[in-house]
Amino acid sequence: MELKGIHHVSAITANAADNLYFYTKIMGMRLVKKTVNQDAPSMYHLFYADEAGNPGTELTFFEIPRAGATRAGTNSISLTSLRVASDKALQFWQERFMKYGVEQEAILERIGRKSIRFTDAEGQRLMLVSDETNDGVAGGVPQVHDEIPEEFGIIGLGPVTLTVANGELTRHLIEEVLKFRPVATYPSGKDGQRDIVVYSTGEGGTGAELILEERTDLPTERPGRGSVHHVALRAADQEELLQWIDRLTEMNVSHSGFIDRFYFRSVYIKDPNGLTIELATDGPGFDTDEPFETLGESLALPPFLESRREEIERRLTPLDSGQ
After folding, report:
1. Which residue, among 277, 290, 272, has the nearest Cα to 6 in the 3D structure?
2. How far apart (Å, rounded) are the C-alpha atoms in residues 300 and 190?
3. Given this model, what pLDDT does residue 323 score?
């Protein structure tokens, strides 16, 4: 029983229309599911991914129109990575970001891989990472895009950084409970702060890493637009997920219990520093209720919300998802 890697990252936006434009038109990802937050169906939940919405490629957003600005700090999921196939792809993206006025940093090498840090218009902290030297979890297939050659497209999620005030508490969860293994360390670059630790699971590589940063010099993050709500990790199937739930219970880790999200099955954990971590199955998948060819074009609702469709649609601002 071993987690396979990153499943998805779910973040917060205050403007679904602008968010849709950025991630489909500028980043070239596919909107594979236009749905709602199942726990609060008055808000959109948008899923961007590779062409098929494969697990490990999904960056999702809850729309909270009144969300305030994020005050960055500790006890947060502080950096989300997106994978591209090569170092050459980073050069393409550097030029594309300049064309569209996207705030970016220089191409740097981190953990033996070249990368670019950048932000969207709401300050979402992102990084493109090159798979040039990756020998772990394979990436997906980029969505076809008129302006982005296929060899330069986004192929999935890369390492996700957790920044916490008490590293030992989260280390115990990552290593002892979730069974990630430490594979590298590198200096924080901040005076008096511990080295940053890279953890890996499954086949390893860019699609299977969590990065743990301990910071005692920061306030606690105040989340808002541009912050991350949770990171989800890949369990192979429902049978394995149930085994993980048993393990969490046996190790006295508080959890949500089994939840059926229709497109996948889940369990949620609160780590001791307050981060939300989900374990999610690879299937059934996003083509459960829509054909592959028209994924994301219509508002999709899980069966238990279908009877409320008229009410839900009335509360949502229409969103043109033509891609």
Report:
1. 277
2. 45
3. 53
Q: What's the confidence (pLDDT) of residue 268?
A: 98
- pLDDT score for 110: 87
- Token pair of 208 as six digits: 């299977």
Residue ranges of the chain with per-residue pLDDT less than 70: 322-323
What pLDDT is recorded for position 322?
61
- For residue 133, the domain's CATH number is 3.10.180.10
Look up the pTM and report it: 0.97
Q: Of 128, 123, 120, give the one whose Cα is nearest residue 25.
A: 120
168: Cα separation from own chain's centroid: 24
Structural tokens at position 155:
């192929």
**In the structure encoding, which two tokens stand for residue 255, read together?**
């959890």
According to the model, what pLDDT value does residue 320 have? 82
Domain that holds residue 147: 6-315
Q: What pLDDT score does 269 carry?
A: 98
Residue 288 placed within a domain: yes
- Tell me whether residue 78 is in a domain: yes
Per DSSP, helices labelled H in the chain are 16-20, 87-100, 167-172, 238-250, 303-306, 309-315
Alpha carbons 167 and 30: distance in angstroms, whole number? 35
| Strand-by-strand arrangement of the 196-200 sheet | 108-110, 113-119, 125-130, 76-84, 156-164, 209-214, 196-200, 181-186
- How many domains would you assign to the chain? 1
